[in-house]
Predict the 3D structure of the following.
Amino acid sequence: MNTIEIKPRGYCHGVVNALVIVKKVLKDPSYPRPIYILGQIVHNRQITDFFSTHGVISLDQEGMSRLDMLETINDGTVIFTAHGISDKVIERAKEKGLTYLNATCKDVLKVHVAVKDKLNEGYKVIYIGHRNHPEPEAVLDISDDIYFVENEQDVLLLPNNLNQEKIFVTNQTTLSMYDINNVLKMIELKYPNYIFDNEICKATTMRQDAVMDQDLVDLMLVVGDKKSSNSNKLVEVGLKTKAKVSFLIQNVNDIDLQWLNNANQVSVTSGASTPSTVTKEVIAFLKQYKKDDPSTWDHQSKIDDKDIL
Ligand code: SF4
């Protein structure tokens, strides 16, 4: 079995920046305790668990907005995640007298600026993203003149009279053009005079391009968290292009040995929030694996969550 390491893969600059911020606060006792994160600092459970063992409280309850989460905090330091935060939440943190740090990725911030600029120019904004993801939540908080869509059906439900408006379309940073193109076709039918600004970030694009540029493989494994949008996209892009089969795995434990039975070419990539130690363990397992040798089949992860970073 040939194991192919897809590159680039793994951490992007936005994730590195967010992790540096949390580590800085942990090391510096002048930041008031407790330390809270509004959501998961990046979408990776192992990283969240690592910080949790060091006393960092990640507030991540489904159905709760960032503002709702903030209301539960009365003291300490609050860190806003790489996915972005709205001005409303920042203002509320100030009102509450909390110490806060903003780990928003600069590529996400760029989308906020573009949306605000276009609103100021009198445009209505259509934003393409994933439901229940924190990145759209922060963007939608900017104004009521932003319309959220995830798919073509959502576009059909938008008000018809928007076609009398100037329309600006943009998107979540971690989508793929496969998601966007179908939605754009529908927008074009309904509002032919729209303008579009593609905001898929460079890190996401480069990782997806690497998947598209590989030779055809029997199996592609993407190491990443189920909640990680960019990791899920890598699976989808692989299936649409060069991978006969592809699975998202959180770590080496998730490999099903049956997947390897008839796979001669197996490639591995990872999402932008996946620690490299986790991906390297997957690659090391695959490289030594032999179908006929049970001594090579053990795929229990040896990485302790406390050593993940
Ligand atoms: S995936 Fe892109 S937008 Fe998200 S944190 Fe990384 S660089 Fe920033």
Summary: The mean pLDDT is 97. Residues 107-196 form a domain with the Cobalt-precorrin-4 Transmethylase; domain 1 fold (CATH 3.40.1010.20). The radius of gyration is 21 Å.
